[in-house]
UniProtKB/TrEMBL annotation:
UniProt organism field: Thecamonas trahens ATCC 50062
Protein name as it appears in the record: Uncharacterized protein
Taxonomy of the source species: Eukaryota, Apusozoa, Apusomonadida, Apusomonadidae, Thecamonas
Residue span of region Disordered: 45-115
CDD domains, per database record: Prp3_C
Keyword Metal-binding applies: no
Subcellular localization, as worded in the UniProt entry: Nucleus
Key word Cytoplasm present: no
Domain annotation Small nuclear ribonucleoprotein Prp3 C-terminal: ranges: 305-454
GO terms of biological process kind: mRNA splicing, via spliceosome
Region forming the signal peptide: none
C-alpha cells in the first residue's frame, strides 16, 4: 500500500539479483557434473584399452570383460552426475567437448578451423594397389575365382613407353591419317606487338634527357679526378675574371697576364674547332647518311601513286621525274600516248614527297621550260628528214607541242593506295608511243587497271 513505506523497485531489483545468482550456481554445478562425467569416461576408456592390450599376453579370452574403472575414476562432485559408463575401444573420447552444453560438438566444433595439408609419401598409393593385387591373386589361387576389380588399373612405371596404355590399340599410321596438319601461312602485315615501337619525344623532353646525360658524364669525370685516374683541367681564366683569379700576379704585371689569358682563350677556341672538324662527316659519309634516312622498309606493304599528265614529251620534265624517283628510292614506269601515265611505288614518306613535288612544285604550264627541248627536237627532225629517215615519235611530239597544249597541261593524282609487293624493279620509260603497248606491259606486271583508272578520270582541269 502507499503508506507502508516499502520500495517496490528496490524489491524487484533484489529478486532479480537473487535469480541471477541462483542461475549462476546451477550453471556451475552442471559444468562440474559434466567435467566429472567426461573424466570418468576417459578413465574407463583408458582402462579398457589397457585390458584389451594385455589380454592376449596373459592368455585370457579376447572378449573378457575389462576390470571396472570405478576405483580409478575421480570422486563425484555432485549428486546429479550420471553414472560412469565404459567406452568401447572403437569410440573416440577426444571427440567429446568439455564446456557449455549448448555449444556444438564433434565435427561442428572443428568446422571453422583451418586444417593443414596432409601429403602422402611418394609411392604410397602404388604400394597399396600392389598389395591389394597380390592379396587378390593369392585369394584367386586358393579359391579358384578371379578377382576382376584390378584389371582396369595401371600402375605408373610398369611397362610405360612412348604410347600410353589407353592408346595401345591405335597404331601410329592410323593416328597420322586422322590428324590434319595445316600449312602455316605468314600474316600479310606484322602486328603492333612484333617489335618495340619508337616513342617520339617533345623538344622539352629531349632537352631534359640531354641535360641528364651531360650531368651524369660530368659526375663520372669528377669521380675519376678525385680517384687520381684523370688530371684536373686547368683553371679557365678569361679577361672578365683575370683579376679575381690571378690576384697579385695580375696587379704586378697586367700586360703579361693579359697576353697569357688571350693565348689560352685562343687555344681553347682552336681546340673546340678541331673537335668539331674531327667529328664532322666527309661528303661521302654525309651522302650515305642522307640516303639511309630516305630508305624505307617495304617488305610488309608498298605505297603506290598513279598520276595522269596531259603533256610529258619535254626532256626536262622527264629527267626531273627520273631524278626524283631515284632520290626517294621509288620504282615504277612512265607510259606515253595521247596523255602520259606515271606509276611510282615505294615507301609512304617517299611517295608523299614525290606526290607533293608532282602536284605542287612542277610548273606544268611554263613554256620557257621546254623551249630548249623544242629547238633540239627541230634540229634532230630536220637532220633525219634530210637523211630520209622520218621519226614518227618526233613528228607526233612536234604536233602536240604548241603553246595551247602546254597552257592546258596539268598533272593530277588519280589513285593512291597500298599493295603487297613491288611490281617494278626500277624506274623506266616505256617507248611504245601508244597506250596499247603500255597496257601490254602493265598486263605483264599484273597492274593494267592503272590505265583503266586514268581513262575514267579524263583530262585534268
Amino acid at each position: 500500500m502507499p503508506g507502508d513505506g516499502v520500495d517496490k523497485e528496490a524489491l524487484k531489483a533484489k529478486m532479480a539479483a537473487s535469480k541471477a545468482k541462483l542461475a549462476k550456481l546451477k550453471l556451475a554445478q552442471k559444468r562440474k557434473a559434466l567435467a566429472a562425467k567426461v573424466a570418468a569416461k576417459l578413465a574407463a576408456a583408458k582402462a579398457a584399452d589397457t585390458a584389451s592390450g594385455a589380454a592376449p599376453a596373459s592368455g585370457t579370452a579376447p572378449d573378457a570383460t575389462p576390470p571396472p574403472a570405478a576405483a580409478t575414476a575421480p570422486p563425484r562432485t555432485s549428486s546429479t552426475a550420471a553414472p560412469t559408463r565404459a567406452l568401447a575401444p572403437s569410440q573416440t573420447p577426444a571427440a567429446e567437448f568439455v564446456g557449455e552444453p549448448s555449444l556444438p560438438r564433434g565435427r561442428a566444433a572443428t568446422r571453422g578451423r583451418r586444417r593443414a595439408f596432409r601429403f602422402l609419401p611418394k609411392g604410397a598409393l602404388t604400394a597399396r594397389l600392389r598389395r591389394q593385387r597380390e592379396a587378390a591373386a593369392a585369394a584367386a589361387t586358393e579359391t579358384g575365382e578371379t578377382d576382376k576389380r584390378f584389371d582396369d588399373f595401371h600402375v605408373v612405371g610398369e611397362g610405360a613407353g612412348a604410347v600410353e596404355w589407353w592408346d595401345a590399340d591405335i597404331g601410329p599410321n592410323t593416328l597420322d591419317n586422322l590428324v590434319e596438319h595445316p600449312v602455316p601461312i605468314p600474316p600479310p602485315v606484322v602486328g603492333a606487338g612484333a617489335g618495340a615501337t619508337k616513342v617520339r619525344m617533345t623538344a622539352r623532353e629531349r632537352q631534359k634527357l640531354r641535360k641528364r646525360k651531360r650531368k651524369e658524364l660530368e659526375e663520372e669525370r669528377q669521380v675519376r679526378i678525385r680517384l687520381g685516374l684523370e688530371k684536373p683541367p686547368p683553371p679557365k681564366v678569361k679577361l672578365s675574371n683575370m683579376m679575381r683569379v690571378l690576384g697579385i700576379e695580375a696587379v704586378a704585371d697586367p700586360s703579361a697576364v693579359e697576353a697569357r689569358v688571350r693565348a689560352e682563350t685562343n687555344a681553347r677556341i682552336q681546340a673546340h674547332l678541331d673537335r668539331n672538324a674531327a667529328a664532322a662527316l666527309t661528303p661521302e659519309q654525309r651522302k650515305a647518311k642522307e640516303k639511309a634516312k630516305r630508305m624505307e622498309d617495304t617488305s610488309q606493304h608498298v605505297a603506290v601513286a598513279v598520276f595522269r599528265v596531259e603533256y610529258l614529251d619535254a626532256v626536262a620534265w622527264r629527267a626531273s621525274i627520273a631524278a626524283n624517283a631515284k632520290h626517294y628510292n621509288l620504282t615504277g614506269t612512265v607510259l606515253t600516248g595521247p596523255y602520259a601515265v606515271v606509276v611510282v611505288e615505294g615507301g609512304p614518306k617517299g611517295i608523299g614527297k614525290f606526290t607533293r613535288w608532282m602536284t605542287q612544285k612542277v610548273k606544268w604550264t611554263d613554256v620557257t621550260l621546254v623551249a630548249h627541248d623544242v629547238a633540239k627536237r627541230a634540229e634532230k627532225r630536220a637532220a633525219q628528214r634530210a637523211a630520209g629517215v622520218p621519226d614518227l615519235e618526233l613528228e607526233a611530239a612536234e604536233t602536240n607541242l604548241n603553246e595551247a597544249s602546254i597552257a592546258a597541261n596539268a598533272c593530277s593524282l588519280i589513285w593512291l593506295g597500298w599493295v603487297r609487293r613491288r611490281a617494278f624493279s626500277a624506274f623506266t620509260f616505256e617507248k611504245g608511243g601508244t597506250l596499247a603497248s603500255g597496257r601490254a606491259f602493265l598486263k605483264f606486271k599484273n597492274c593494267e587497271h592503272y590505265l583503266d583508272v586514268a581513262a575514267r578520270v579524263g583530262p585534268s582541269s
